[in-house]
Every structure is written in structure tokens, then in C-alpha cells.
TrEMBL record:
Pfam family, one: YtxH
Taxon lineage: Bacteria, Bacillati, Bacillota, Bacilli, Bacillales
Coiled coil: none
Positions of the UniProt region annotated as Disordered: 98-127
Designated name of the protein: YtxH domain-containing protein
Ranges that cross the membrane: 12-29
InterPro entries in alphabetical order: Desiccation-related_membrane, YtxH
Keywords annotated in UniProt: Membrane, Transmembrane, Transmembrane helix
Organism, as annotated: Paenibacillus aurantiacus
Amino acid sequence: MAKNKANKGFLYGLLAGGVVGSVTALLFAPKSGRELRKDIADGAQQVGEQTVRIAGQVGESTTRLAKQVASGGAAIADKAKETTSNVIDSVRNWKRGEERSERLEVNQEVAAGQEENEEATERTTIS
């Protein structure tokens, strides 16, 4: 996330520097007022077009990231429900006094579910 902020700051700085540099170059160029105004208008139009293009790219990236987060969240929620169900079943079986081996199997399934949940969380966090 810090990298995105740095990229955004760099992009804003680049855009501002381009505008300031363009206007400064135009103001010091030996041209008539009419030519200078036309050049400034053309430069402003180019900056506006670039800004629209960059905003579109940012919007697409944001949409893609939101979809990734949503799908990862759904997977984590499903794993949490499954793990909870396994724990509830394990407790019920334990209360009923079932065989120790059956409890061990359930506990192993719960542990495996928890590991899968942690791995899914790590994959979502990394993405």
C-alpha cells in the first residue's frame, strides 16, 4: 500500500512539474501574445487528456483490486464457517462420549481447516 501512495505522489509531482515547466517555457519563448495563448491552451488540453487517461487507469486498477479483496474475503468466510462447524461437531461428539479415535480425527480436520484458513488469509493479504 505504501508503494501505491509513493507512485501516486510521484505521478502528481510529474504532472505538476510538466505543467509548470510547460507554462514557464511558453512564457519565456519569443512569441506574440496570440501564439502564446494558443500554445498554453494546447498544453492545457494535452494535460487534461492525460489526466483523463490516468484517471481511467486508476479506476480500472481500483476495481480489479476490490474484486480480488472481495473474492478472498468470501473464501476466508467459507473456511471460517467450515471450521466452526467442525469445532461444533467435535464438541457435540465429545459430549456424547464417542470413541477417542473419532475425536482425534475431528480435531485433525479442525486443525487442517485452520491451516487452510491461515493460508487463504496469507494469500489474500499478499495479493
